Amino acid sequence: MPKYRHTRLPPPYLKRIWLDRPADVDAAAYPWCLPLFRSGEFELAFDRPITIIAGENGVGKSTLVEGIAALAGFDEAGGGPGYRAVDHSQAIERGGSLLAAGLKASWLPKMGQGWFFRAESFFSVARYLDEARSPYADFLSHSHGEGFIRFFEERCSRPGIFFFDEPESALSPVRQFEFLKLLRRMQDGGQSQAIVVTHSPILMACPDARLLGMGKYAIEPIELEDTAHFRIYRQFALDPHGMVDDMLAE
Predict the structure, then answer these.
(1) pLDDT tens-place string over residues 44-54
(2) Are the C-beta atoms of residues 99 and 63 closer than 8 Å to each other?
(3) Alpha-carbon span 143 to 132, nearest angstrom
(4) Which of 46, 143, 176, 236 is most deeply packed, by most CB within 10 A?
(5) d(CA 48, CA 168)
(6) Environment class of residue 24 by beta-carbon count within 10 Å: exposed (0-12), middle (13-18) or buried (19+)?
(7) 41 compared with 156, residue with greater pLDDT
(8) Which residues fall within 8 angstroms of residue 139, CB to CB, at 6 or more apart?
Protein backbone atom coordinates (compact mmCIF):
# COMPACT_ATOMS: atom_id res chain seq x y z
CA MET A 1 0.00 0.00 0.00
CA PRO A 2 1.61 3.31 -1.04
CA LYS A 3 2.02 6.02 1.56
CA TYR A 4 0.46 9.42 1.00
CA ARG A 5 1.63 12.73 2.33
CA HIS A 6 -0.66 14.51 4.74
CA THR A 7 -0.51 18.18 5.60
CA ARG A 8 -2.24 20.24 8.24
CA LEU A 9 -2.60 23.12 5.82
CA PRO A 10 -6.05 23.27 4.24
CA PRO A 11 -6.66 23.21 0.49
CA PRO A 12 -6.42 24.79 -2.01
CA TYR A 13 -2.75 23.89 -2.28
CA LEU A 14 -2.33 25.36 -5.74
CA LYS A 15 -2.95 29.03 -5.01
CA ARG A 16 -2.27 30.79 -8.27
CA ILE A 17 -1.03 30.33 -11.83
CA TRP A 18 0.14 32.99 -14.23
CA LEU A 19 1.55 33.24 -17.71
CA ASP A 20 5.30 33.62 -18.16
CA ARG A 21 5.44 32.97 -21.87
CA PRO A 22 8.83 32.21 -23.44
CA ALA A 23 10.03 34.97 -25.74
CA ASP A 24 10.59 32.64 -28.70
CA VAL A 25 7.08 31.13 -28.94
CA ASP A 26 5.13 31.35 -32.18
CA ALA A 27 2.24 33.64 -31.25
CA ALA A 28 0.25 32.32 -34.22
CA ALA A 29 0.52 28.69 -33.05
CA TYR A 30 -1.79 26.90 -30.62
CA PRO A 31 -2.27 27.53 -27.70
CA TRP A 32 -0.70 31.00 -27.85
CA CYS A 33 -3.11 32.03 -30.61
CA LEU A 34 -6.07 31.71 -28.22
CA PRO A 35 -7.30 35.21 -27.32
CA LEU A 36 -7.13 34.33 -23.61
CA PHE A 37 -3.36 33.81 -23.79
CA ARG A 38 -2.43 36.10 -26.67
CA SER A 39 -1.69 39.18 -24.54
CA GLY A 40 0.63 37.29 -22.21
CA GLU A 41 -1.13 38.68 -19.12
CA PHE A 42 -3.23 35.67 -18.09
CA GLU A 43 -3.53 34.95 -14.34
CA LEU A 44 -5.84 32.70 -12.31
CA ALA A 45 -6.19 32.36 -8.52
CA PHE A 46 -7.73 29.42 -6.63
CA ASP A 47 -9.48 30.27 -3.36
CA ARG A 48 -11.54 27.12 -2.65
CA PRO A 49 -10.87 23.38 -2.54
CA ILE A 50 -13.15 22.77 -5.54
CA THR A 51 -12.98 24.87 -8.72
CA ILE A 52 -15.42 24.23 -11.56
CA ILE A 53 -14.65 25.66 -15.02
CA ALA A 54 -17.46 26.00 -17.55
CA GLY A 55 -17.38 27.32 -21.09
CA GLU A 56 -18.18 26.67 -24.72
CA ASN A 57 -16.18 24.30 -26.92
CA GLY A 58 -13.08 25.83 -28.43
CA VAL A 59 -12.23 28.43 -25.78
CA GLY A 60 -9.35 26.33 -24.40
CA LYS A 61 -10.79 24.76 -21.22
CA SER A 62 -9.22 21.34 -21.75
CA THR A 63 -5.93 22.88 -22.83
CA LEU A 64 -5.90 25.01 -19.69
CA VAL A 65 -6.53 22.13 -17.26
CA GLU A 66 -4.09 19.95 -19.20
CA GLY A 67 -1.45 22.67 -18.93
CA ILE A 68 -2.01 23.12 -15.19
CA ALA A 69 -1.85 19.35 -14.64
CA ALA A 70 1.39 19.09 -16.64
CA LEU A 71 2.82 22.01 -14.65
CA ALA A 72 1.90 20.12 -11.44
CA GLY A 73 3.88 17.07 -12.58
CA PHE A 74 1.23 14.90 -14.24
CA ASP A 75 1.48 13.43 -17.72
CA GLU A 76 -0.53 15.53 -20.18
CA ALA A 77 -2.38 12.40 -21.32
CA GLY A 78 -3.68 11.66 -17.82
CA GLY A 79 -2.86 9.47 -14.86
CA GLY A 80 -1.02 9.86 -11.59
CA PRO A 81 2.42 11.37 -10.91
CA GLY A 82 5.04 9.32 -12.75
CA TYR A 83 2.49 7.49 -14.91
CA ARG A 84 3.17 7.20 -18.63
CA ALA A 85 0.07 5.30 -19.65
CA VAL A 86 -0.05 6.57 -23.24
CA ASP A 87 2.67 5.99 -25.84
CA HIS A 88 4.02 9.42 -26.78
CA SER A 89 6.70 8.21 -29.20
CA GLN A 90 4.69 9.15 -32.30
CA ALA A 91 2.58 11.85 -30.69
CA ILE A 92 2.55 15.50 -31.67
CA GLU A 93 3.14 17.72 -28.65
CA ARG A 94 -0.18 18.65 -27.14
CA GLY A 95 -1.39 22.19 -26.50
CA GLY A 96 -1.45 21.57 -22.75
CA SER A 97 2.20 20.60 -22.54
CA LEU A 98 3.15 23.66 -24.61
CA LEU A 99 1.06 25.86 -22.32
CA ALA A 100 2.69 24.34 -19.22
CA ALA A 101 6.08 25.54 -20.47
CA GLY A 102 4.77 29.10 -20.25
CA LEU A 103 3.05 28.85 -16.85
CA LYS A 104 4.27 29.55 -13.34
CA ALA A 105 2.55 28.46 -10.13
CA SER A 106 2.34 29.37 -6.45
CA TRP A 107 1.76 26.50 -3.98
CA LEU A 108 1.27 26.15 -0.22
CA PRO A 109 2.36 23.42 0.14
CA LYS A 110 3.51 21.90 -3.16
CA MET A 111 1.28 18.86 -3.69
CA GLY A 112 2.87 16.02 -5.65
CA GLN A 113 0.14 13.41 -5.39
CA GLY A 114 -3.30 13.06 -6.89
CA TRP A 115 -4.66 12.28 -10.34
CA PHE A 116 -5.35 13.81 -13.75
CA PHE A 117 -8.50 12.31 -15.25
CA ARG A 118 -9.12 12.79 -18.97
CA ALA A 119 -12.22 11.10 -20.31
CA GLU A 120 -10.68 10.45 -23.72
CA SER A 121 -7.68 8.59 -22.27
CA PHE A 122 -9.52 6.71 -19.51
CA PHE A 123 -9.26 3.33 -21.23
CA SER A 124 -5.55 3.73 -21.93
CA VAL A 125 -4.89 4.57 -18.28
CA ALA A 126 -7.15 1.76 -17.03
CA ARG A 127 -5.41 -0.72 -19.34
CA TYR A 128 -2.03 0.52 -18.08
CA LEU A 129 -3.11 -0.15 -14.48
CA ASP A 130 -4.37 -3.62 -15.42
CA GLU A 131 -1.12 -4.52 -17.20
CA ALA A 132 0.88 -3.20 -14.24
CA ARG A 133 -1.15 -5.59 -12.07
CA SER A 134 -2.32 -2.81 -9.81
CA PRO A 135 -4.39 -4.27 -6.95
CA TYR A 136 -6.76 -1.33 -7.38
CA ALA A 137 -7.42 -1.79 -11.10
CA ASP A 138 -9.92 -3.94 -13.08
CA PHE A 139 -11.87 -0.86 -14.17
CA LEU A 140 -12.48 -2.25 -17.68
CA SER A 141 -14.68 -5.14 -16.53
CA HIS A 142 -17.50 -2.66 -15.85
CA SER A 143 -19.69 -0.60 -18.13
CA HIS A 144 -18.25 2.71 -19.31
CA GLY A 145 -20.09 4.80 -16.72
CA GLU A 146 -19.69 2.26 -13.93
CA GLY A 147 -15.97 2.07 -14.68
CA PHE A 148 -15.74 5.85 -14.34
CA ILE A 149 -17.52 5.84 -10.97
CA ARG A 150 -15.47 2.94 -9.62
CA PHE A 151 -12.32 4.69 -10.78
CA PHE A 152 -13.33 7.96 -9.10
CA GLU A 153 -14.28 6.24 -5.86
CA GLU A 154 -10.96 4.39 -5.62
CA ARG A 155 -8.51 7.02 -6.85
CA CYS A 156 -10.06 10.13 -5.31
CA SER A 157 -10.38 8.86 -1.75
CA ARG A 158 -6.75 9.86 -1.12
CA PRO A 159 -5.21 13.24 -0.29
CA GLY A 160 -3.86 15.25 -3.20
CA ILE A 161 -4.71 17.52 -6.10
CA PHE A 162 -7.07 16.21 -8.75
CA PHE A 163 -7.80 17.41 -12.27
CA PHE A 164 -10.93 16.29 -14.12
CA ASP A 165 -11.53 17.00 -17.80
CA GLU A 166 -15.22 16.37 -18.55
CA PRO A 167 -15.76 13.58 -16.00
CA GLU A 168 -19.48 13.55 -16.85
CA SER A 169 -18.88 12.29 -20.40
CA ALA A 170 -19.95 8.70 -19.62
CA LEU A 171 -22.23 9.44 -16.65
CA SER A 172 -26.01 9.50 -16.63
CA PRO A 173 -27.62 12.39 -14.70
CA VAL A 174 -28.05 10.08 -11.69
CA ARG A 175 -24.38 9.07 -11.82
CA GLN A 176 -23.40 12.73 -12.10
CA PHE A 177 -24.95 13.19 -8.66
CA GLU A 178 -22.74 10.33 -7.46
CA PHE A 179 -19.73 12.27 -8.70
CA LEU A 180 -21.11 15.37 -6.96
CA LYS A 181 -21.20 13.38 -3.71
CA LEU A 182 -17.56 12.47 -4.28
CA LEU A 183 -16.66 16.16 -4.62
CA ARG A 184 -18.51 16.86 -1.38
CA ARG A 185 -16.53 14.13 0.41
CA MET A 186 -13.32 15.65 -0.91
CA GLN A 187 -14.43 19.02 0.50
CA ASP A 188 -15.35 17.52 3.87
CA GLY A 189 -12.07 15.58 4.09
CA GLY A 190 -10.02 18.77 3.97
CA GLN A 191 -7.10 17.03 2.25
CA SER A 192 -7.93 17.45 -1.44
CA GLN A 193 -8.12 20.09 -4.13
CA ALA A 194 -9.99 19.52 -7.39
CA ILE A 195 -10.14 21.48 -10.64
CA VAL A 196 -12.99 20.30 -12.85
CA VAL A 197 -13.75 21.20 -16.47
CA THR A 198 -17.35 20.34 -17.31
CA HIS A 199 -20.40 21.01 -19.49
CA SER A 200 -22.74 19.59 -16.83
CA PRO A 201 -24.97 22.04 -14.92
CA ILE A 202 -25.31 19.35 -12.25
CA LEU A 203 -21.59 19.46 -11.53
CA MET A 204 -21.54 23.25 -11.85
CA ALA A 205 -24.03 23.35 -8.96
CA CYS A 206 -21.50 21.81 -6.53
CA PRO A 207 -22.11 23.61 -3.20
CA ASP A 208 -19.28 25.81 -1.92
CA ALA A 209 -17.26 25.36 -5.11
CA ARG A 210 -15.87 28.28 -7.10
CA LEU A 211 -17.63 28.33 -10.48
CA LEU A 212 -15.68 30.05 -13.24
CA GLY A 213 -16.97 30.92 -16.67
CA MET A 214 -14.33 30.70 -19.37
CA GLY A 215 -14.82 32.61 -22.58
CA LYS A 216 -12.58 33.58 -25.47
CA TYR A 217 -11.17 36.63 -23.69
CA ALA A 218 -11.56 36.04 -19.95
CA ILE A 219 -12.13 33.55 -17.16
CA GLU A 220 -14.05 34.88 -14.18
CA PRO A 221 -16.53 33.89 -11.44
CA ILE A 222 -20.06 33.25 -12.64
CA GLU A 223 -23.35 32.16 -11.09
CA LEU A 224 -24.82 28.84 -12.20
CA GLU A 225 -27.99 30.52 -13.49
CA ASP A 226 -25.90 32.82 -15.71
CA THR A 227 -24.08 30.05 -17.55
CA ALA A 228 -25.14 29.28 -21.10
CA HIS A 229 -25.35 25.59 -20.13
CA PHE A 230 -27.94 26.22 -17.42
CA ARG A 231 -29.98 28.59 -19.57
CA ILE A 232 -30.23 26.18 -22.48
CA TYR A 233 -31.18 23.24 -20.23
CA ARG A 234 -33.79 25.39 -18.49
CA GLN A 235 -35.24 26.47 -21.82
CA PHE A 236 -35.37 22.86 -22.96
CA ALA A 237 -37.05 21.71 -19.72
CA LEU A 238 -39.72 24.42 -20.01
CA ASP A 239 -40.55 23.74 -23.68
CA PRO A 240 -38.64 20.74 -25.05
CA HIS A 241 -40.56 20.29 -28.28
CA GLY A 242 -40.72 23.98 -29.07
CA MET A 243 -37.01 24.42 -28.44
CA VAL A 244 -36.08 21.42 -30.59
CA ASP A 245 -38.25 22.73 -33.40
CA ASP A 246 -36.63 26.16 -33.16
CA MET A 247 -33.08 24.78 -33.06
CA LEU A 248 -33.64 22.45 -36.00
CA ALA A 249 -35.16 25.27 -38.01
CA GLU A 250 -32.10 27.52 -37.61
Answers:
(1) 999 999 999 99
(2) yes
(3) 21
(4) 46
(5) 21
(6) exposed
(7) 41
(8) 122, 126, 129, 130, 147, 150, 151
